[in-house]
Amino acid sequence: MLTKQTVEDLKKYNLSTLYQLLRDTKDNRETLFILENLGHLPVGFDGDSLLHLLPNSSDQIRLWVVKTLGKLKNLKYLDVLFNVAQSDINSMVRREAVSSIGRMRTEDAIDSLIELLDDSDPKVVLQAIRGLLVFKRKSQVDIALRKLRRHPNEIIQSVISKEFSINGNHREAKQVPHPLSPDFMKNVVVLGDVRDVLKCVPDEAIHLTFTSPPYYNARDYSIYESYEVYLDFLTEVFREVHRVTKEGRFFILNTSPVIVPRVSRAHSSKRYPIPFDIHPRLTKMGWEFIDDIVWAKPETSVKNRNAGFLQHRKPLGYKPNPVTEYLMVYRKKTDKLLDWNIHQYAHETVQHSKVKDGYATSNLWQIDPTFDRVHSAVFPIELCNRVISYYSFLGDLVFDPFGGSGTLGRAAENLERHFFLTEKEERYFERIRQDLGRESLFRQPARFLSLEDFQKLASQSS
Description:
The chain is of the alpha/beta class. Helices cover 43% and strands 14% of the residues.
């Protein structure tokens, strides 16, 4: 019986028998077992002993032959690998062949890799890019790679943009350290239109934004001329949120489809898919989609849409009760990895900011809603606690452009973060003042400012 030890012994002491075994065996399982367990190849290993396996019907065997030839880094097999990269019927085998060519790190492979940039498989192209980046200072390679800035695949565009700092997205490091935020914005609530307020906020001042925008024409306090006007309004706000958000930091948007009641029984109600319509606008302005979290509420807490269907049970009339909302998680697009953001903080801050046991392990969050005597759509404190804990550090500045009842501010102070809220409705502004305006043994009360006062404060701080 063939074992790993047998393969290892043959590789070390009897290569000719190993070659013969690869040549003579008709059992694909045995051939694959040998290939998978070759490991590090001895000096002088003869790659020709594998070439007869390249036409094999097994994708896995062809894949492992290509991997093994790649380990040799021998120019002798450049044309063989190039032919596999172009013609094999399996995309994984083709990608591995390109990767093997790239690992040779030889200028002799440049022409082949450049030719593979025109492949229809984006992952083949990405492997070719990886191989060429070693030689990106050569004009031939530089020209070939820069042509990809208009490639239809967004990941290829991103890689090229990062490597060549194309399209102006590259920004110099800010003088203000990443963990810091403007003092004049800390624990501040502003009464005014968020669009006017944000004009006074400097670039990259906010660490985290978590908000739920006003419903489209489903509440008396949020009336818009049309759905398109509503989406344009959100787009304008969230574009400014993008500007004031620090590099690589998060924006979490809580939305759900909204039902606008029918005018009469002769008309039907209308349902607007807000999360899905705003998403392409967000990604276009530079937010990178990270996750979708579903907030699930008890069915007893939502308005029943089933009454009619309960009576007649006729097909087409089924209407499920909407018990979920979306928390769409976005990150300000950057070339830097998350580790870069984390490393901007002192070790002690990172340690003290660690998420406690009992955190949510899935994207389904079952949290009861909260009801308020003043505001009709209130964040549960638990929802804010999770978002703040998972997406910010101690001392960060968190922002809600639609402050509502101020729950985000209350959660922020409980979790030792600073808050910045805006709210244009005076009755809600006063509701926030009731909650956050009280003095505490641990902090000074929040500052509640008019738009004019905030503008003055911002100009004095600039």
